[in-house]
Amino acid sequence: MHGHPTSSGRFRRATTLIRSLVAYHPGLFAISMAGAAVFAVCTVGSSWLLRWIIDEVIIPRFDNDSFSVSQTLIAVGLLMGLSLIRACGVIIRRSFAGRAQWRTAQSLTDEVVDVIVQQPPQWHRQQSPGDLLTRAGVDVEASVAVMAPLPYASSVILMMAIAAVGLISSDTALGLAATAVFPILIGLNVLYQRRVDKWFDIAQGELGVLSAAVHESFEGVTVVKAFGAENRETERLAIIASRVQSARIAAIRLRSLFEAALDFVPNMTNIFLVVGGAFRVRSGDLSVGELASFIYMFTLLVFPLRLIGYALSEMPRSQAGFDRIQNLRLSPVMSDPRALFIHNNDELALHSASIGYDVNNILFENVSASFAPQSFTAIVGYTGCGKSTFVQSLAGITPILSGSISGPSRLTSFVFQEPFLFGTSVRDNVCMGREFSDGDLRWALEIAEADFVHELPQGVDTIIGERGVGLSGGQRQRIALARAVIQRPKILILDDTTSALDPNTEAKVLRSIKLRLPDSTVIAVASRPSLIAMADQIMFFDQGVIYGPATHIELLVQNEAYRGLMQAYESPADSEETP
Q: What are the chain's domains?
């Protein structure tokens, strides 16, 4: 959130905002402005036409009891023609302003999404999904809100300039009194903007916090219900929502005071003009038509002047939304770890690599290891020793801190322990938008022992709900595994992927992978003896040191910590598949 800028700083920010928004589709905005200019000229022209009609057509009818058919027809024709041109200006202004507004919104959304998809996984881990959704939705809509009234507000400025000349030329005293109101109304608008912008900043920021909290609550709904935390979660969201509400109420309260003042000033001015104008007509300084034209012109400007206020009132909200979008757009794109891979079609290898969360929290230093093509490697270690971070570095999900990695990185499939499934069909979740035949799909599901999908109501076309909420943990893991193997990857990395499966199903899955993906190099985080026993080689992690690659027997003989871990694995009964 920015501080409170000075008037000149606020004006610069507003002009920068408008210039930035208009730059996306200047042609549409220019056409809208042209329509607004036509509307402005016709509006002022209608007051001059009204004066002529009153003085030349209506007054003679009462004063001289004369009636000119030709003049009446001319007056009607001019009035209808001017009204038609004015209506065309309104249509052009509104339609093209709307197009400019929402095409700009589309362009901003595209830019936000482009920034989000360009960032690598480690950037996304530092962000709130709810806040990112807010920036791509609510903030974009807020940013372009000022574009709708802007052409009309611009036409009002043109109307004011033309009308000021007309009012003063009609009667200097009344004209100066009427035009003096214009800067007062504009001053009220500026004062309002200065007071309200901080509340819109606060509201927009808190709305992002609320979206993030709601997204988090929906994602963790099963945990919330399992621990009976509904009331606590409701209170937490209510507190955040109350902050949004308080900021918006403060802004609306200021807006109400501002609109009351906008009503009061022109109404009092109108009373003054009627009274003062009556005296001027009585003295012969003004004709009835000139006074009617005078008051009509001033009245016509009062409501459009409020549109300037509306445009200015939208400015703080648009500025707050645009600032949040700019903060995201200007954030540097973090380097993609996969771009640092040394690509080859041979074995996957680490070369003097340091792996960790950051330079102050290094898990493994100066690691050199290789994984032979078509081998099966088990990654073993105590909880929290860095197994997941290690395999994520191999897949280019987490960056290495130094050294290098070589291998066929673009042909790597990774399966997480907690699989993410989209709220679409089984087919869409496995194929991920790529074209695979029914035979390929069936082949992948067979490897993953996911034949249960054929028993679903619509088989592989069954919609499984957001995050696969209608499936068990083991079923979700098997669909995620099928998604990985259907790619026929060179490197298949399993991060404790079969933890929710019973031992028999796990053994079937692993045997299928070895038999039916003979060209794949498999690296699996293991926590069960059955998986470890199937591995060609094992890497054991213990207190920041990596032992191996070696065979299971070699590690049992050489490493006491490994023997202790194997005894711990074998003592409890293997767990059944999670419901």
A: 7-329 (1.20.1560.10), 339-570 (3.40.50.300)
